[in-house]
Amino acid sequence: MTxxxxxxxxxxxxxxxxxxxxxIMLDSTVLGVALPSIRQDLKFDDSSLAWAVNGYLxxxxxxxxIGGKLGDWMGRINAFRLGMIGxxxxxxxxxxxxxxxxxxxxxxxxGICAGTMQPASAAIVIDIYPANQRGRAMATxxxxxxxxxxxxxxxxxxxxxxxxxxxxxxxxxxxALISIGLTLTLxxxxxxxxxxxxxxxxxLILLVGTPLLVSGFQxxxxxxxxxxxxxxxxxxxxxxxxxxxxxxFRLTQPTIDLRLFRDRGFFGDAFLLLCVSFINVGQGIYxxxxxxxxxxxxxxxxxxxxxxxxxPVLGIIHFAGRMYDxxxxxRPIILGLSFVLTGTVIxxxxxxxxxxxxxxxxxxxxxxGCGFAMSPANADSLSRAPIAQRGEASxxxxxxxxxxSTIGIALMVLVMHGLASPTATENAPSTLTxxxxxxxxxxxxxxxxxxxxxxxxCIQPKAEPQMQS
Length: 469
Description:
Elements: H1 7-29, H2 31-42, H3 46-74, H4 76-96, H5 100-128, H6 134-150, H7 152-162, H8 167-170, H9 172-185, H10 200-223, H11 228-250, H12 264-294, H13 299-304, H14 307-327, H15 330-352, H16 356-383, H17 390-418, H18 434-458
């Protein structure tokens, strides 16, 4: 591990870790404006097109909890480097993909590698900073990465309009090389947690149950609530995850220690990150499509149209980090979720009204809320876990975020199609009207309200760890 008493080394380490998360976030939303070009070049049909987006998110959601545990077993720096190298190679595969299914396969590998390196990188950031500086460190780590997530449509729009969609993935190569190079230059050492017996049955149940559940929601969103195979996937996946959870509470050395959720603050942090991810991914993908289809924006204009969401984050992330360091997580999180709720309501009004100015006001308020809430929640969740379990805790938190992203897209599509105008069809998202998309954005407001209520009762005023090793 890097020497924590050397601030210059800490900042270089933070820079390397931020690069990894930025790639992950960027690849979650960059496809929003690139999908039409990718669909045309690789001959995607409606079903496979959905997997171009969801295959990545599904793989990460399925693997990220195991990835966090893997970092504790093999050393966090080793897990980070392994995941980063794999992510870079898979990105090259996406850029060079000759067919739709090769592209989807590369996206799935990207998701697995992202689920390996992301929990390790977050735990490394928490490890190298003292408690009174973690808020600002995580503000930089999560805040800048959030900019890449929200800026995906802008970056993708510019690359598609002035180069080609392939560059959305070539962009990951220099970022990966810089991050890996920094970890080698800094001679960062991997520390391993105490080796515990591996419960392979638990790992198998988790890796089968998670994709079944999430893919069931995806199929429900694509084909409607009367789709029997989707409900079968949801039931089987849900039962397997219940069995997994029951097994973890019975084992003395669980594969994933779900007892971490018994801490009320940890649960509140993880749940609000799930909800904010639910909102942001839907915003990033369907917001840019809405601007192009109903406001007549070009891909580049649709990307620029997301700037009202980005600019407030730049001004708030460090202020939110200082607020966390001085006052604990409750104040910035509750304030942030108030803005998130207000922003989603305004956005919904703007979508129904076909008014970009109203939509932009909503995005601005939403961006302020994300800036206040997300980095304090990340910092608080990991600070509450024992040092030896921080990789595992990070994996759990990120699994919740990825569930939010994957299920968020599926439920948004389900709501839009379930309330669709007669002109819309089950397998033709392009025929959705502005009214239908407005209902999808209305779902975001409901999710934001739920997050506010849960956070109000769960988030603690103090930032000190609540769980002991």
